[in-house]
Amino acid sequence: MASGEDLQPAAVRDLLDQIVARTVAGMGAYAGALFLLEPGGEVLVLDASFGMPTGFVSLLRRIRVAAVPEAPLAEAILQRHVVWVGSGEEFARRYPHLALTYPFVDAVAAAPLVAGSRVWGAMLVLFSQKSPVLDAHARGRFTTAARCIAVLLQDAAEAGHRLQPGLTARLLPPTPAHPSAPALPQAAADFIAAVPEGACRLDVRGRITFADHTAADLLGESIPHLVGARVWEAVPWLAHPASQLRYRAALASQLPTSSTVKQPRTGRELLLQLYPDSTGVSLRISAPVGAIHSPGELALGTGAVPGPASLDAYYHMMQLSGGLAAAVSVDEVVELVAGHLLVALEAHAFALLVAEAGRVRVVGHHGFSPELVDLVDHAPLASDLPLPGLTSGAPPWGLTQGVPSFFADRDELRAAYPESASIDDRLGAWAWLPLMASQQFVGVCVVGYRQARSFTLQERTTLTAISALISQALDRARQYDAKHELAESLQASLLPRTLPTMHGLEAAARYLPASHGMEVGGDFYDLIRLSDTEAAAVIGDVQGHSASAASLMGEVRTAVHAYAVVGATSGEVLARTNHLFNDLDPGLLTSCLYVHIDPVHHRAQLATAGHCPPLLRRSDLHTDILEVPPGPLLGVDPKAEYPTTDIPLPPGTLLVLYTDGLIETPGTDHETALTDLATVLSKATGPLNDIADTLLAHAQPSGDRADDTALLLLKVF
Known about the structure:
Elements: H1 9-26, E1 31-37, E2 43-50, H2 54-59, E3 62-64, H3 72-79, E4 83-85, H4 88-94, H5 96-101, E5 107-115, E6 118-127, H6 136-158, E7 170-172, H7 186-194, E8 198-203, E9 208-211, H8 213-219, H9 223-226, H10 231-234, H11 241-253, E10 257-262, E11 269-277, E12 280-286, H12 311-326, H13 330-345, E13 349-356, E14 359-366, H14 370-376, E15 405-407, H15 410-416, E16 429-437, E17 440-449, H16 457-494, E18 505-512, E19 523-529, E20 535-542, H17 547-565, H18 570-584, E21 590-598, E22 603-609, E23 615-617, E24 623-625, E25 630-631, E26 645-648, E27 654-658, H19 670-683, H20 688-699, E28 709-716
Parallel strand pairs: 2-7, 22-25
Antiparallel strand pairs: 1-2, 1-6, 2-3, 4-5, 5-6, 8-9, 8-12, 10-11, 11-12, 13-14, 13-17, 15-16, 16-17, 18-28, 19-20, 20-21, 21-22, 22-26, 23-24, 23-27, 27-28
C-alpha cells in the first residue's frame, strides 16, 4: 500500500490521469474517460476525460446505473466484466436508445473498477473506425489499468482520502503524437501564406489554437479575435448546431468531414473541411469549385439541425425525453431534470412542487436557496408565500388551470404577484410551468435564470413541451413510489418484527426487496422459540412477486410456526405444511428449509423442501456447504416425505440460511457463486450483524438486486 502522503487526493488524481492517458494511447484509442461511483452505488459521475468531444462530457456527467442497464458502462458494472462493442452498427443494435444521442460512436470498451468485492466506478474508451479490434493485448492492458485504478481508489479511501468527483468534469490535456518544433520553419510559413486557402487548428474543446491570415480574411474576423475562442463563438454565423454537429462528428468518428457554407458579409460560398486526430481538428477553408467528398469522408448534409440553438441543448433534450419515459421513481425524475434540463436551458435553478393534502411539497430542487426551500416546503396552499399561481392571491387562470407563467425580470414577477417580493433575489428571470396529468393539476416546475431574459416563442414552446413530459413522468413516479411504499409495508408486516432472545444462541436477519418492480416478494424467515432450551429456524421462498405470493408466504410461515410448537420433527413440520399447502391449491410452489436447534446439547436437525443448502462455519472459520437430502418443493406432491439430517453444533459454530437472491449473480453459475459466498463467510469477522452486511455486500456490490433476498444467521455459543 502506498504511504498516506502518496494517497492525498491531488497525488491520486495525478496518478489516475496518467493511467487513463497511457491506457488510451496504448490501446490505440482516441479518447477515454474515468467515472467514479457515488456512495450508495447508484450513480456514476464523470470525473475526467481524455481526448473526448466536449459534448460527450456534459451528456455523460451523471449516469444512474440501475435506470440505464442497457448502457456499456452500467452493463460493465452490473456484469463485472469488460464490455466491448466493435462497431457503430453493433452499438445501435445493442443500445438503440443511446444511439439516438451518440450517433457517431463506433467501437467502445467499458471496464468496471473492481477491488476485492467493491466496485469503485468504470472506465470508458472510444475507438475510431481505424482501430475497431480489441485484441488480447489491448484487453489485457485495459483490464490491468482498471484494476490498478480500483486498487488506488480503495487504498486512498482506506487511508481516509476517498476521491470524490469535482463539480465539473476535468478534461485532461492531450499529448500530441508529434511534438511541434519551437518555431514554424520559414518555408512552411511561406507555403501557407502563398496558397489561397485558410488553415485553423481546433482543440478538443473547439477552441482555435492557430489561424493564418487567409483563414481570418475568409471568416471575416481578425486573428487575435479568433485565437483562444471557440470557433462558433468567435464566428457567430458558424454558431448554428449544424456546424457544431460536424465538428463533433469528425472528432467522435475520427473521420474527415466537410460542408459548404455562405459567408453572410460577402455572400461568398466557403468549403470547410475538417481533419481530426486525437488532439483536435485541423480546419481547411477554401472557396470551392465544387464540394466533393474524398473517399472515406463522413458526409453530412448542409441542412439545418432542428431543435434548440445549442447542439448540446438538443442532445440533452433528447436524453431528458428518453429518460423521463423510463423513469419509475421521483428521485429518478429529479435526477434527470437536474442533469439535463438545466444544461439544455442554460438555467441556474429548478424546483418541482406538488400539491399534497392542501399543502405544497418540494419533491426535488437544485440551485434555490435553502431558506426559500424550507419556507415553501409543506406550507399551506392558501398562504402568502412567493408561489405564483398557488397562493391565496392567485388569479383563477393561474397555474392550477394549466397556464404557464414567464417572468423576464424581478419587476415583472413582483408586478404580477406582490407577495413574491421575498423570492430568491439571486435569480433574474423565472418560468413557472404547470404540471398537468390527465387534465388534473399535479404540481409546478419552477425554472430560474441568473440574468433577466426575454423568453422567445421557441423557448416558451420548448418549456411547455418539456413540462408535459415532466408531468407524466412525475405523476407516474409518485404512483410508483406510493405503491412501492405500500408493498414494502405489507412485506414488513408479514415478517417477524424482532427475533427472540435465546440462551446459547445469537441471531441476526436481513431482508432486501428486489431493486426493480414494486411487487412484494415471497421470501420469508422466522426464528421460533420452542422451549427455554430449543428453537426452530425456518427460511423459504414462495414462487413469484405479487400480492398472492406475499399472502401465501404469510400462510406458510403461520403453518410452519403452528406445526413447530406442537413438537413435530423437522421432516414432519415440512410434510404437514406441504399437505396444507396442496389443500390450498395456490398454483404456486415454495422452497423451504427448517432447522430444529438445541443449543444446550449443541445439536441441530435439518429438513429441506428444495431450498438452497445452508452454510456451516466452524469455530476455526472453516466453512462447509451442507449436503441436506432434499425433499420436493411444497405444493408438488401432497404425500411427499422429507428426510431429516442431524448435525453437531459445537460452540462457535455459525449456521447461515439464505434465499437464492443472495447467490444469483449474472454471468456466474450457481455452484461458483455458492463457493464464493462460502469463501467470503470464512473470512468475515466481527459481530453477527457485520457479517450479515459483508455477505450482502459481496453478493450485491452495486446494490442492484434482481430478486428478493432473505438471510438468517445463527451462532451457537
